[in-house]
Amino acid sequence: MGNMNVTNIDLGSVILSDAEFRDELLVFGGAGTVAAGTILARKRVSDSITVAAGTNTGNGTCAAAVYGNVASPVAGAWELKCTDAVTNGGVFKLTDPAGVIVKEALTLTAGAGVSTIFYLPELGLKITVTDGSTDFAANDLFTLTVAADNKLVVYAASGIGGANIPAAVVTYPVTAAGAGNVSIRAMIAGKVRAERLVVSGGSVTVAILDALRRAGIVAVSVDELNALDNQ
Asked: What is the extent of the structural domain holding 118?
């Protein structure tokens, strides 16, 4: 028996076969439409980080933000504690939400009112500490609370907090009247037509397709006709 040749008719669908869906929330930054075939990512954590000072001797300040697309910070309460007092400065250590010390000897640039920024892309964090009029003392601390998110956003190669990791595909146009969350049925597994995938502001690369495959979505290149060829 000879090989069977199958010719697909293009019905305009992103889905090829074996699709699995899940009800999700898609975050919009403002009014707009997300086209069918757009690759989505899952925000693991919120971009903003809440920082609370302990009962400190020093009156310096601390601010933190999710940083870089190498890693996403673990959700929960991180602790930045002063280990050594220094005039117009200080040395700190950083503990993750599991209580593990992940960074030590974070040393401020000494100077009255000077701000020091610690870039920690391997942890997904950027921490800024500013010297105050009263120096930090040993055991002064700040609690940095990273909030879990888990909502879907449009994938972006430069995204942070998980926005740069392909996780799903929207298979129909989704429109929002303004900023907020829209309920959708996102495709989380199955086969899709590679030619119908969309990357907002960019192109679909092999690396993106590999990441989709790891998430459970296989992109297949398909040659299709606009009508049946009966000739």
From this structure: 45-148
